[in-house]
TrEMBL record:
PANTHER family documented for this protein: AMINOPEPTIDASE, AMINOPEPTIDASE YPDF
SUPFAM superfamilies, sorted: Creatinase/aminopeptidase (SSF55920), Creatinase/prolidase N-terminal domain (SSF53092)
One Pfam family cited in the UniProt record for this chain: Creatinase_N
Family matches, as InterPro entries: Creatin/AminoP/Spt16_N, Creatinase/aminopeptidase-like, Creatinase_N, Pept_M24, Pept_M24_MAP, Peptidase_M24B, Peptidase_M24B_aminopep-P_CS
Name listed for the protein in its UniProt record: Peptidase M24
Gene3D superfamilies per UniProt: Creatinase/methionine aminopeptidase superfamily, Creatinase/prolidase N-terminal domain
UniProt entry keywords in alphabetical sequence: Hydrolase, Metal-binding
Keyword Nucleotide-binding applies: no
Sequence ranges assigned to domain Creatinase N-terminal in this UniProt record: 6-118
Domain Peptidase M24: start-end pairs: 131-333
GO molecular-function term, one example from the UniProt record: metalloexopeptidase activity
């Protein structure tokens, strides 16, 4: 089913007559429009895209199913011209309090229901899957090219820049997020964005990175060690690797995010490191780097076939270092399939 008909069915199920949508990713998903600073109104019969003069021609080309309405004094200055219904919804994840208040002021007779549209984007179409497999392949190849250049004496920031360049020259639009390169004791920081720290012998080095291809994100983490791994490094690496593989083994459609997360969490705890794995096991990926569904304690919903999620357990030892291994996978009828194909065995960079 196409996105707009799916959205209209959703509105009927929610008992509302129309919806205002903000957020570049959601507007792109439902209309194909890739510009910014826009507002979308959809009801049973119409789709109206409100934007400014910078994007009018682009909107006409990319969103042929929409009426295009130009504003000159702010998105909410023309919403009454849309002639919307009065029992409405808005996607609260993308409206600030100030914006929601301005919308209500512009349409004083309307009532609004908060809804979450990210769930409609959870199941990826074949075309979305194709783009995400390509984004993952770009990141895979970029990392393989970087491996010979990971050396003692180089700075984290240098390696991050090379990795990003490797992705861009293969067709990436940009990175999915700020590239993480964290070495030594900094590898115990789950989100240790690349710094000017010099990489030293004996360091763990964690690389968490991804790129955007035709609007869709990839996401992967690999951890290497500089030189021969110490016994404690081998121990926690092998536990995280087994946890990653376990997460992918138990990820079947119908399993809830809580169940998959708990299976991995229990395994790490059984090895004595439960206190050092604090974050959720994974998250959805798509037009945004963090989408629904999540693999964590807060998601009691079944994971659907066609969802694309990460599986990223880690162990982080303050003052020593840490390991994370992350794959992006697609949930299939028989389990899950990896998009990220870089090898996961411990790399000792000699």
């Amino acid at each position: 089913m196409k996105p707009l008909p799916t959205l209209r069915t959703f509105l009927q199920e929610e008992g509302v007559q129309g919806i205002f949508i903000k957020g570049d990713s959601s507007i792109r998903y439902f209309t194909g429009f890739t510009g910014g600073e826009s507002l979308l109104y959809v009801d049973a019969l119409r789709a109206v895209l409100i934007t400014d003069s910078r994007y009018i021609l682009q909107a006409q080309q990319q969103a042929p199913e929409c009426e295009i309405l130009e504003h000159q004094h702010g998105l909410f200055s023309v919403v009454d011209q849309v002639r919307p219904a009065w029992r409405l919804a808005l996607d609260g994840d993308y409206f600030s309090y100030t914006e929601a208040t301005a919308l209500q002021k512009a349409l004083p007779k309307a009532s609004f229901k908060n809804v979450n549209l990210v769930f409609l984007r959870a199941v990826k179409s074949p075309e979305e899957q194709r783009k995400m497999f390509k984004a993952a392949a770009i990141a895979d190849d970029a990392f393989h090219e970087l491996i010979p250049h990971i050396k003692v004496g180089r700075r984290e920031s240098e390696l991050a820049a090379e990795l990003e360049y490797n992705m861009r020259k293969r067709g990436a639009q940009k990175t999915s997020f700020d590239t993480i390169v964290a070495s030594g004791v900094r590898s115990a920081l789950p989100h240790g964005v690349a710094s000017n720290k010099v990489i030293e012998e004996g360091d763990f080095v964690t690389f968490d990175f991804g790129c955007i291809y035709d609007g869709y994100c990839s996401d992967m983490t690999r951890t290497v060690v500089m030189g021969k791994a110490a016994p404690w490094q081998k121990e926690i690496y092998e536990i995280v690797l087994a946890a990653n593989e376990l997460g992918e083994e138990v990820l079947f459609p119908g399993k809830t995010g809580i169940e998959v997360d708990q299976a991995v969490r229990d395994f790490i705890a059984s090895k004595g490191y439960g206190a050092y794995f604090g974050h959720g096991l994974g998250h959805g990926v798509g037009l945004d780097i963090h989408e629904k569904p999540n693999l964590n304690k807060g998601n009691p919903d079944p994971i659907p076939v066609g969802a694309i999620v990460t599986v990223e357990p880690g162990i982080y030892l303050p003052g020593k270092g840490g390991v994370r291994i992350e794959d992006t996978v697609i949930v299939t009828e028989w389990g899950c399939e990896r998009l990220t194909l870089v090898e996961k065995e411990l790399m000792e960079i000699l």
